[in-house]
């Protein structure tokens, strides 16, 4: 056994494994500018976080609008020539407003970047949830800023407002090195019901070379990462109907089909013994994990025991031949989110239930086409049921998977900019969840990058949400480096 | 092919197939006595049916007691030397009272018969259920008597009160030919929670050679039958626990076990492709269907399409190699009565649920021991679960199966007595459901016979419950014949 093999725990490194990258040193001038702005920046963010822009609560609709107007005012105040509040298609009554802002570059051929984020927040109620402090009265403590929206997503949106200012100050520019556009949604925490329509309606003004999604996270402060993909999602409800009403299991049981049994047989048949999904064609087109990405995943300091603790689980289980990280990031899955049939109260009730219901969702990866899944599922269900059981399959809509092209020059820029801000090589991750990023990609025809300046402990959707102030500062720095790096290494003509 | 084979549709009759029996002619004297008593009998039954003895409704406890006292008074009035109201073990506050009555024979060596029935009834509310008339204001119409309890079970209990009177009148006796005991329960419609204890407490006074259960039904008025068995029942809840709380299916799904999936896999594995139950040892000891009984079942005018309509089902499905009647009467089954896990509301919620729950019940036939089932199920469940899923199996108690010995002389007496009353050969059936009859058999050590004077259209537990007056009259006649026939063909010494 060679020394090299021994040093990697017996796992031989491929000869063409990516070299570890050494980040460029930080720009002390730029850091000085950040320090100068820092106190005002935090005060402004605090003001914005005080606005309870809870999109799920109809009583907060005026607050969501106030939040949008606050942001547009702020962006105009720091120099954006354009900053507008955009109503949903259908008008102010149809949904909650987004903010669009634009700051063109003075350089011909500069690439155009669209930053996506959202200004609405999850519900939070100090009276009923165990927050240590009021979620809408931001508090700075131990190097953190606690407030609903501090990490998801106002903090991550706001870092770009300081990022562009220090980018200008440090480079002596009056306009950014890239054509900078911001689209800050107001309904993300409510499922983005009008987002695709909004993007289609404004597709010309949103035209760009690359989308930077600022609404994800990174591995940890010690291991900064860039996410290269989110899985897609397709949800279904399968309803099985047997007897016209619940019937006596003594008089009829064992002689007519039971829809609860048939529902269980369907769910059980959805995975084989290797826990692979059995739907015909399910894996067709799945883009396999790139060797580079697989190698970068393997370098993450993944501790399965700790991960299981965050999953509130005591054992891992999934598709054979893949690691846990591969299973949640790069492999498609089928999951039962709910099942119900018959009697569910105390004690027993001896019936054959009239119906059974299953909620299924599929996570999808690049190469899978969610529109094909519905027909495949319907055929599979109907082909497995005995006479006497009728099925209805209802689709709950889908979100497409989204994968950043690994060879795109903007991804290299993002890794360099973040590496410089964090003083470390930026590894790659993916995100197991799903988001509306693919709508941007599909409507605008631009690749999507994920710049997540947040760590798992930030408490998204939970109590005591916070942002680490040091992380936020590095995010500002990375944002500033990014616009210069993109302009230096990539022009619109080359990129497109 | 012989003529005989052709005549039976190609199915060869076994050489020892039971000969069709010609019933004895009716006793015109006895019928005259019935006619004489008939009007008073119906008036008395009507009075009793007016008492809303709903055992499930705590507000009706006094009515259940009044019903017991009414019956005891009545039985004393017609000549029973003993008729007592028995409180539950634990006293009048612990449960609802039964009635015990006894009329010893004057003949030495006469067999002792215990008739079982119940005087409590199912709930019925004219204000909320679509009854045509008040369920507790009996109405005679078109040869039927409509009232809650008319068939289940006051009518069937009461026919014995006239049966013994006309038996005495027609035979000139002052005491019945058998030692007659009645035990009329007051909690049957509430699951007989104290019945086994009651029987054990009074086992000496209830001692008998045979039990006649008067609380089932027959095939139809045109095809009178005797039921020879009821299935047993064992109910369980299986609770599966996975993650400590519902977790995000995007972040964790596909990489940790999902308790809903595992519950479905268990339920699916409970039957094989032949729809036989796969629990190890499940079929051990199962008494196969007797050839005589199978032949008598086959002679029933069973119409599967009509049966499916009563099952509100469109197709039959069950254990391979058995007919529908065999499946529901003579074969054990496993049935899912309920299943639930995760999200069951509108739309979708992308979670891996923390737990999943299944309600299972097993119908058992003679030879199966329900006390073995719990351990078998627990072992089977635990043996099939992956690491990360924990199971709890909770037993909901059981009812033993009960099968009349087909060669018992009392069964021959019952078939002769009923055959004479109905003017037809009495075929055999069984009952797919379960009842407390096995408690009587096990505690008293006496075989149990089922004398069901009711037809499927009588509306048990449903609206517009009724009894056919002609059927009731034939039941009275059969009861009267039965005591004489039993005494003539069987003495206690022989029978025991």
TrEMBL record, chains A, B:
Biased composition (Low complexity): 1-22
Origin: domain of life: Bacteria
Residues in Peptidase M20 dimerisation domain copies: 229-386
UniProt key word Glycosyltransferase: no
Pfam families: M20_dimer (PF07687), Peptidase_M20 (PF01546)
Gene Ontology molecular function, alphabetical: metal ion binding; peptidase activity
GO biological process: proteolysis
Keywords: Hydrolase, Metal-binding, Protease
Residue ranges of the region described as Disordered: 1-23
NCBIfam families for the chain: PRK07907.1 (NF005914), PRK09104.1 (NF006579)
PANTHER family recorded: BETA-ALA-HIS DIPEPTIDASE, SUCCINYL-DIAMINOPIMELATE DESUCCINYLASE
Name under which the protein is recorded: Acetylornithine deacetylase/succinyl-diaminopimelate desuccinylase-like protein
